[in-house]
Design brief:
By secondary structure, the protein is of the alpha+beta class. It has two domains: 114 residues, no CATH class; 62 residues, DNA Binding (I), subunit A (Orthogonal Bundle), CATH 1.10.30. The chain contains seven helices and eleven strands. The strands form four sheets. A five-stranded mixed beta sheet has the order 2-1-7-3-4. Strands 5-6 form a two-stranded antiparallel sheet. Strands 8-11 form a two-stranded antiparallel sheet. Strand 5 and strand 6 form a beta hairpin. The protein starts with 9 loop residues before the first strand and ends with a helix.
């Protein structure tokens, strides 16, 4: 099991308080200690205070907080930090893989147009790997399991199938849209609010 210091549980905001990245507590502590970021002391829904490293070290540990022990004593693990000198929102592409293809194709079978429930679809290589097809954005689509089984190691036209659209590399999106609150951290929600349906 990963140590708390090495889990991606710290949301990084730019200096305009827009979500741009996720870091581990170890990375967040380094950023705070060097002055590259401030930690946000979030007290419920009403109070948020950005704190520099020296002030962060003095924070009391609350029951709901995660903490790490250091030679100087226990230190609260931040849930959100603010980068001091970065104002942009970087553009990112989804990572290639099953989740990225599912998102690019909108959860829709690219042969039937049917909206798929989780577990109903899998990834089809348009040109099968057995025939030299690559595992790439341009050759992989979301397909209903039964359609993929029917297609087997044939090209779509050989199986009587037709793609809804040619697969391609997804366009870059603001990093905020690709951040997932996989650990269900309450303090993140206010910063992911425009994209809460995509955050969990």
């Amino acid at each position: 099991m990963k140590s708390i210091l090495h889990q991606s549980t710290v949301l990084v905001l730019n200096r305009n308080w827009q979500a741009i990245h996720v870091k581990t507590p170890a990375e967040a502590f380094c950023m705070m200690a060097t002055g590259a970021a401030s930690g946000l002391d979030v007290q419920g829904d009403d109070s948020i205070s950005p704190l520099k490293w020296d002030d962060w070290l003095k924070l009391t540990i609350r029951e709901e907080d995660q903490m790490v022990n250091t030679p100087r004593g226990a230190v609260r693990v931040p849930t959100v930090i603010v980068a001091s000198n970065y104002a942009k929102i970087p553009l990112c592409r989804p990572r290639f893989g099953a989740r990225g293809i599912w998102e690019r194709d909108g959860g829709i079978c690219q042969y039937t147009g049917r909206k798929l429930a989780p577990g109903e679809g899998n990834i089809d290589h348009v040109v099968p790997r057995s025939r030299g097809g690559a595992s790439s954005w341009e050759n992989c689509v979301l397909s209903h399991r039964s359609v993929n089984e029917k297609k087997a190691d044939r090209l779509p036209h050989e199986a009587g199938l037709r793609l809804l659209r040619k697969p391609d590399v997804p366009r870059a999106l603001p990093a905020t849209m690709l951040i997932r609150n996989l650990h269900g951290i309450r303090d993140w929600q206010r910063f992911l609010a425009p994209f809460t349906d995509r955050a969990a």
